[in-house]
Design brief:
single chain; 182 residues; mainly alpha; 9 helices
Length: 182
């Protein structure tokens, strides 16, 4: 008799990330995940001690993808500071990561432990922006202001629904980036 096929740990994590992005953390339930994966709940408990462990791993995965994997790719692809800042915005808040990022931001409003993680991720992002923009401008307050504007633009792009009168959204974001980077 063949041993039972086990659902890989990463499948549970990926399914939980999808649910987080679409429905929020409260919707991440063992029963829901098992149904999504087409398996029994018992398989979950072979991979995780409990739901909280899964939620912690989901946040770890989001943090790793948002920081470590993005930085590895940015540094691997190279380019000057302006190019890296533009790519950082594109990669950090990609179509895959942005829905998760927004869900984590909402979650952090209600959960102090998640707020601590979000602050750590945002501080890492800001540190990287400061480092890059610091190569373009020498005044520390200007570097801080430009870094904050660049980061705000990345986040706000997904939150603002306004139409643009003088070009496409991409054109306007590109122009705003040029203003920020100088």
């Amino acid at each position: 008799m063949a041993p039972p096929v086990r659902t890989p740990r990463q499948a549970w994590i990926d399914a939980a990330l999808t649910i987080l992005a679409t429905s929020g953390p409260d919707a991440i339930r063992v029963e829901t995940l098992a149904a999504e994966l087409g398996v029994t709940r018992g398989g979950f408990y072979r991979q995780f001690a409990d739901r909280q462990e899964l939620l912690d791993v989901v946040l770890d995965t989001w943090e790793r993808r948002s920081i470590d994997e993005v930085l590895r790719r940015l540094e691997g692809e190279g380019g000057d500071a302006r190019t890296k800042v533009r790519k950082a915005g594109t990669l950090t808040l990609s179509r895959e990561l942005m829905p998760i990022d927004l869900a984590v931001r909402e979650w952090a409003r209600r959960e102090p432990a998640v707020a601590v993680r979000l602050a750590r991720v945002d501080n890492s992002r800001m540190d990287y922006l400061r480092e890059l923009i610091g190569t373009l401008h020498s005044d520390p307050r200007e570097v801080e202001a430009r870094s904050m504007l660049a980061f705000s633009l990345m986040i706000a792009d997904y939150l603002i629904a306004a139409d643009h009168r003088t070009g496409t959204r991409t054109d306007i974001i590109r122009s705003a980036s040029e203003l920020i980077l100088g």
